[in-house]
């Protein structure tokens, strides 16, 4: 029996317009928003291929008490994404082989949430 799981991480953001612009630069498009235009939304989603991320607006005070985590996203296109996004100046950790068997790079969104994109090497 296949479970058919999908995961949609919810990212705390302090400025929806800034976050939507960031993800748009990385090739994502708005999949839904609770307001129009989406830049005024309190909750919105962005999508690229099969990856959908949800964005929820928090005040600067609220975001200090909200738990965030690093997101690890597996993709066969790790080299292409690295080249494209490195040209945009958003990479914070270089593409490299890791001792745990991944080839990966990292970036942070405008509110500091860390993302690691990787593919397994072995």
TrEMBL record:
Pfam families per UniProt: Glyoxalase
Q: What is this protein called?
A: VOC family protein
On the tree of life, the source organism's domain of life is Bacteria
Matching InterPro entries, A to Z? Glyas_Bleomycin-R_OHBP_Dase, Glyas_Fos-R_dOase_dom, VOC_core
Query: PROSITE patterns, per this entry?
Result: VOC (PS51819)
Sequence intervals crossing the membrane: none
Q: Which SUPFAM superfamilies match?
A: Glyoxalase/Bleomycin resistance protein/Dihydroxybiphenyl dioxygenase
Domain (VOC) spans 5-120
């Amino acid at each position: 029996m296949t479970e058919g799981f999908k995961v949609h991480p919810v990212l705390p953001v302090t400025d929806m317009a800034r976050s939507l612009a960031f993800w748009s630069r990385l090739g994502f498009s708005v999949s839904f928003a609770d307001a129009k235009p989406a830049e005024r939304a309190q909750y919105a989603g962005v999508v690229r291929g099969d990856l959908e991320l949800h964005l929820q607006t928090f005040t600067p005070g609220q975001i200090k008490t909200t738990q965030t985590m690093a997101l690890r996203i597996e993709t066969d296109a790790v080299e292409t994404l690295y080249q494209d996004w490195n040209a945009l100046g958003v990479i914070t950790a270089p593409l490299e082989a890791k001792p745990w068997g991944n080839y990966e790079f990292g970036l942070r969104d405008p509110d500091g949430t860390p993302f690691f994109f990787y593919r397994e090497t072995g």
